[in-house]
Write a structure and sequence with these properties.
This protein has 356 residues and is of the alpha/beta class. It is built from 14 helices and eleven strands. It has a single domain, classed as Metal-dependent hydrolases (TIM Barrel). It has helices at residues 3-12, 59-64, 82-92, 110-130, 146-158, 182-191, 215-234, 237-240, 259-263, 265-268, 280-284, 296-306, 325-330, 337-351; strands spanning 41-42, 45-46, 50-55, 96-100, 135-137, 139-140, 164-167, 194-197, 245-248, 288-290, 311-312. α5 (146-158) links the parallel β6 (139-140) and β7. The longest helix has 21 residues, at 110-130. The radius of gyration is 19 Å and the shape is globular.
Length: 356
């Protein structure tokens, strides 16, 4: 079946499985890595593996926003049929995915945002109900209206059975540490659902990351995550809402790998910090991260700084550069079986309330 026919067939069904590069197709043109078939077996026992970073899109919602999907790009429309997706998940050793939709509606007016979010959450719920052993999902929320976003997360979890909410790294230039977003953070803390933060691009640096190498994605995405988390730490959001369950894409950006410099911020310049500011590294033990770090030493350092209880698998499916994520954990030197089980599935199972 041609790309366009496959796209149209699955768009009619209401869901298209997309990658986080939907707005930046340069990296999507790169050849896919071909992984060996993997099995989530630790200490001779099968472990349920859960991917907390996987994408879909709802074509009808895209139309409401005046956007179109490109049916000719294999990577963007990769695995559009659920059966195709399951084959790849099985090849990668992934039992379940927590599905999210990247936030491209933050500039939408309220009436449009309400319709888009309700449609998306309804479709996500239907997809999870159809494939309960393969999918759970995060609710979409319109964070440009914080009180509305709080309501949408509550409806998404209580009415549609979604397990938390997916959010971007900023809202129309506003940092999410701005007090105007406190109603959303308060509701998220109250509900206890997992928040999954995924970057959406930093317009201010678009010129600097243009050109070869797909730097908008390769550098820009982890940089946005770093800025997002740093503001939550230093502006006091994580102290106001200490029980938030927040997972960041792309291994937390550059924050965990350079946390020593963040720890020096206040000793170096006390006037730049709040009087009760704790060391940045203390917050890493309460935040959650996906495992998209790509190198054994990078994963070792992420575990050392954050703790194995704070890390979960993340593949960025259907973008294929993370096909070895499971194997990266299974082969990590010095990692105990208990910690491997936690990262592969038990942490996500607990946070997303997935039955054993």
């Amino acid at each position: 079946m041609s790309n366009r026919r496959t796209f149209l067939k699955n768009a009619a069904a209401g869901v298209v499985f997309s990658s986080c590069s939907i707005l930046d197709q340069r990296l999507a043109a790169q050849p896919a890595r071909t992984p060996k078939k993997q099995q989530p077996i630790v200490g001779g026992k099968r472990v349920k593996s859960i991917d907390v970073h996987a994408h879909v899109m709802i074509p009808e919602a895209m139309e409401m926003l005046g956007r179109k999907l490109d049916p000719g790009n294999d990577n963007i429309i990769a695995g559009a049929a659920a059966e195709e997706r399951f084959k790849i998940m099985d090849e990668w050793g992934i039992d379940m995915q927590a599905l999210s939709i990247n936030a491209i509606w933050y500039d939408a007016p309220r009436d449009v945002a309400e319709k888009v979010i309700d449609l998306q959450n309804q479709k996500l719920s239907e997809l999870c109900a159809k494939y309960p052993k393969r999918f759970v999902a995060y609710a979409s929320v319109a964070l440009q209206f914080p009180e509305l976003a709080a309501e949408q997360m509550e409806v998404g979890m209580k009415k549609y059975g979604l397990r938390g909410a997916a959010i971007g790294g900023h809202v129309n230039g506003d940092e999410l540490s701005n007090p105007k977003f406190d109603p959303f953070w308060k509701k998220a803390e109250e509900l206890g659902g997992l928040l999954f933060m995924h970057p959406q691009g930093i317009p201010e640096i678009s010129k600097r990351v243009a050109g070869h190498g797909g730097l908008t994605n390769v550098i820009g995405n982890p940089l946005e995550t770093t800025i997002f988390l740093s503001h939550l730490i230093f502006d006091g959001t994580l102290d106001k809402f200490p029980n938030l369950k927040l997972c960041s894409a792309h291994a937390g950006g550059y924050l965990p790998s350079y946390i020593g410099r963040s720890n020096m911020a206040c000793p170096h310049d006390p006037k730049s910090c709040r009087p009760d500011q704790k060391n940045a590294s203390e917050y890493l033990k309460k935040l959650y991260f996906d495992s998209m770090i790509f190198a054994p030493e990078g994963l070792r350092h992420l575990i050392a700084e954050c703790g194995p209880s704070q890390i979960m698998l993340g593949t960025d499916y259907p973008f294929t550069w993370s096909a070895t994520i499971l194997n990266d954990v299974l082969t990590q030197p010095g990692l105990s079986d208990a910690h491997k089980r936690a990262i592969i599935g038990e942490n996500a199972q607990r946070l997303l309330k997935i039955p054993a």
